[in-house]
Amino acid sequence: MKTALSPRLVLAAFVALLLVAPLVLPAFYITLLNYIGLYAMVALGLVLLTGVGGLTSFGQGAFVGLGAYTTALLTTSAELPGWLGWAGGSPWLALLVGLVFTCVVAFLIGKLTLRLSGHYLPLATIAWGLSLYFLFGTMAFLGGHTGLTGIPPISVFGYELRQGEEVYYLIWLFVLAGVLTTSNLLDSREGRAIRALKGGMVMAEAMGVDTARSRMVIFILAALLACASGWLYAHMQRFVNPTPFGLHIGIEYLFMAVVGGAAHVWGALVGAGVITVLKQWLQDLLPKLFGTSGNFEVIFFGVLMVLVLHKARGGLWPILVSGFKRFIPVAAQRRTVDRDAVALPRRELPAAGSVLLEAKAVTRRFGGLLANNNMSLEVRAGEILALIGPNGAGKSTMFNQVSGVDTPTSGEVLFLGESVVGKGSRTIARMGMSRTFQHVRLLPTMSVLENVAIGAHMRGSSGVLSAAWRMERSEEARLLAEAARQIERVGLGEHMFDEAGSLALGQQRILEIARALASDPCLLLLDEPAAGLRYKEKEALGDLLRKLRAEGMGVLLVEHDMDFVMGLVDRVVVMEFGEKIAEGLPEDVQRDPAVLAAYLGGED
Ligand SMILES: Nc1ncnc2c1ncn2[C@@H]1O[C@H](COP(=O)(O)OP(=O)(O)OP(=O)(O)O)[C@@H](O)[C@H]1O
User: Fold this and answer.
1) pTM of this prediction exceeds 0.80
2) ipTM metric
3) Where are the domains of the chain?
4) What is the helix (H) or strand (E) element at residue 370, kind and residue range?
5) Class of domain 353-432+521-604
6) 362 lines ligand 1 (CB under 6 A)
7) pLDDT above 60 (res 390)
8) Around 396, how many Cα atoms within 13 Å sit in the side-chain half-sphere?
9) How far is residue 494 from each of residues 73, 436, 448, 482, 489, measured CA to CA in Å?
10) Where is the ABC transporter domain (predicted)?
C-alpha cells in the first residue's frame, strides 16, 4: 500500500522548487515567474472576492495602479508636501502609504457600490476601474501617458534588489504570505462569514453575521493584494505608465482566477501561471502562424474562457489536484475538535413562564393580498407553541414578521419586552432569537461542523487580522467545540465532517436546528422541522424539543405533521386565510369546528 504524503510535505516541496528556480532557470523564465507571481497576487484577491464571496470585479487593475503610482510618486518626487515628507524616498514607507491609501479608496468605492447586486455591481467595478485608469493618464503630476521613471529598486537590509532573480524572492515571499494569510482567514470565524456571502446571505444575517461588513472586508483585502502587486511591479520595472492598469488587464485578472479555480486560493497561482505562459507562447506563435502581427491571443483566451465555463467551472486547480493524487496520494487534511476547549459563556434564560415573544395585531399585505390579518400570539419561556394551518394560511409570513426577515404593514412585535419591528434579523438574532428555514438554507460544500459553527458566529469576536495570522485559535477551538456539542446533541455526530450537501433533507433540517442552538438562543423558531424526517428521527427531534423546553427555552413551531405537533406542544395557534381561527390546548383545538372545517373542508 502506498503511504500518503502529508499536505505540508507537498507544500515544502513546492517552496523548495521556488527557492532553487533562479539557480537553475535562465533569466527569461525568472522574469516570467516574476510576472506570474505579481498576477497571482491580484488573482488571489479575486478568488477571495469573486470565487468565494461572489462579488465580481473587473476593476482590480486600478488598485494595482494605485499601489504602483503611490510608490512611484513617493520615491521619485523631489517636492513632496510637508505632511508626506517622512515617506519620501523609501519604497517600504511608500508601500505603507500605498496600502493605507488603497484601503481608504477601496472603502469609499465599496461604500458607494457594494450594496449593488446582480449585474449592477460588475458594471460599477467597470465604471470605477475606468475612472481610476483615466485619472492615472490625465494627472500631470503622475506624468500623463508617459508616466514616471527613475523609480529606485527595493532595498532589503541595505541590499538593493536590482536584478530579476533578486526581486523574484521578494515577489514569491509576498505571494506565499498572501496565500497563507488568505487560507488562514477562510478557515476561521470571519472566513465562514465570508464563505456564506455566496448564496447564504439571509441565513448568515439570521445567524448574526454582518454581511455588509464581510463584503467590505473582502473588497478591501482584494484591493490591498492588488496594491502590493503594483508596488512590487513598479520597483521591478523601475517606471510606471497607465497602460498595465486598464480595464483589459482587469478582465485578464478575472480570467486567471476563473481558469485557475476561483474558489481555491492555489487556483490563483495556477490561473496566473497558465494565462501568463500561454499569452507569452501565443504572442510568439500566432503572428507567425497568421503571417501578420496582432493580438490574436485575446481570441484564444475568449475561446478558452468559454470552454472552461462549459467544461470545468471549478477551474483547473481541482482537476490538477485529482490528477496529482492519482499518482501521488496526499493525506486528507482532517479537522479535529478540541474537546478540552473552554465552553463558551451561556445566556441566562428568562424565568420559565415569562413572556418571550408577543405579536400584537400583526398585519402584512402583499399588494391586495392580506397574508397576515390582525394576528396575535405569545410564546413563553419553557413552552412550545405550534402555529398550524392549511397551505397558504400565512404561517411562514408570520414567521418572517417575528424574526425580522420581513416588516409588518401594521402591528407590533415585542421580543423580551422590546419592539423588534424594523430591527432586522441580525439584531434580533443577537437578542436571543434563532431560527431554521422552511426551505433549508445551508452551505452545501462546507462541512456539517462549519455550517453549525456559523450559528456560533456572534458568540466570538476575533477579527480579520487575528484570523489571518492565526492568533484566534483558542476562540476558534471554543466555537468549533460548541458546534460539535450541538451536532452531537441533535444526533448528527457521525456526520460532523461530511459535506452538509451530502446529508438527506431530513438531516439537513436537523443540522439547521443544531446551527440555531449554537447561537445560544432563548427562543427558537422552527419552520417545518419534521418535514422529510423518518419516524425514529421525528421521535428523536420530539425528545430534543422536550429537553429544550425543560431547560427553559421557548419554541415556536410551524408544522404540518399533526401527529408530531399534537403529542409535543403545549399550545396551538391555528391560522386560515391569514387570520387566527383558533388557539388553545392541542386536545381542544383538534375538536374545534372551525379547525376541522379548515383542514377537512367541513365537519362530518
Ligand atoms: N413575498 C410575497 N409576495 C406576495 N405574496 C406572498 C409573499 N409571501 C407570501 N405570499 C402569499 O401569502 C400567502 C401566505 O403565504 P405563506 O407562505 O405565509 O403561507 P404558509 O401558511 O406558510 O403556507 P405553506 O404551509 O404552504 O408554507 C400566500 O397566498 C402566498 O402566496
Assistant:
1) yes
2) 0.96
3) 7-327, 353-432+521-604, 446-515
4) strand 369-380
5) alpha beta
6) no
7) yes
8) 11
9) 59, 21, 10, 16, 12
10) 357-602
